[in-house]
Design a protein that fits this description.
Layout lengths: L1 E8 L4 E2 L7 E5 L2 E7 L16 H18 L13 E6 L5 H12 L3 E6 L11 H10 L4 E6 L4 H8 L3 E7 L5 H15 L6 E5 L6 H12 L3 E5 L15 E3 L2 H5 L4 E4 L5 H4 L6 H8 L3 H4 L7 E3 L12 H4 L6 H21 L4 E2 L3
Parallel strand pairs: 5-6, 5-7, 7-8, 9-10, 9-12, 10-11, 12-13
Antiparallel strand pairs: 1-4, 2-14, 3-4
Amino acid sequence: MLTWSGIVRRSGLCITPCHHGRELFHLGGMIMIKSRQVSLRNKDILGLENMTVAEMELVLDTAKEMKNIVGRDIKKVPTLRGKSMINLFFEPSTRTRTSFELAGKYLGADVVNITASASSVVKGESLRDTLMTVEAMGVDIIVMRHAAEGAAQYASNVVSPIIINAGDGAHEHPTQGLLDMFTIKQYKGRLHGLKVAILGDILHSRVARSNIWGLQKMGAEVHIAGPQTLLPKFMEQAGVKVHNRIEDALADADVVNILRIQLERQKKGLFPSAREYARIFGVNQARLALAKPDALVMHPGPMNRGLEIAPDVAYSDQSAVQEQVKNGLAIRMAILFLVLMGGKNIETTA
């Protein structure tokens, strides 16, 4: 059954998610959206492993409308007025924390940032007690990054506010996976059938896991490559093409997603030296030429230029690195809107 899912005014006064199967037509300067009702099944965003294709498409389509808001001179709308969110980060972050903060503020929410170094965690407070303290303050949503895998699921189990996983150890980073897919779709027009090469430290990368889960569900062909010591076992059983030579993964690739090498891995003997890594696995112009001429170059940041990616690749016309940052804001606005408002029609007059 078709239902009205809302109205999007060109001026940005009204917004609502657009999603798969939508019908758009113009009426009196407004874009009316008539579509099958779709919503997120769970209140929390913990990972892409358990997210359906319909849910991911809902987020991606909603992000298109949010990106229109970001592009305006006056970006702030009161869609989430009266809602409160806390960015609870136990690990350093520039892009993720800042974009979540701006996403909340642009949508009118009250946003507070908490870092481990400036909290009672340094006094020995447990994660559970920190979460319960935040819950007692009546916060609506907690955006959390933690070094422990499964920390976001744990938070979801012990407190009632909405939990958004901003990265839990080497497990998942769902909003990064979504923004990467959004960026690919922006440039390529589709995800299905594309060859995506993910290169570098796959074993310790939450970005890689979320990308793999999401891209495979959306019909992309995923190839990974890196030192054998940095490749997880059993990836082939999950349908991923695994290569020890970076050249094999790059061959005819539509998208090249290069992961940051964590230099502390060298100290653990997982690769010989930074110079040796760059020589064998670094993406330079010669190696990039193995991919398709219009291959898209991506990197979640921060980049180690001259190590996993050459400067002339990082800043080439094929690079979408800065667009990824812009799209991260739109994706996180979409996520906040969907989890807090449930896709309701919300008047957003500034």
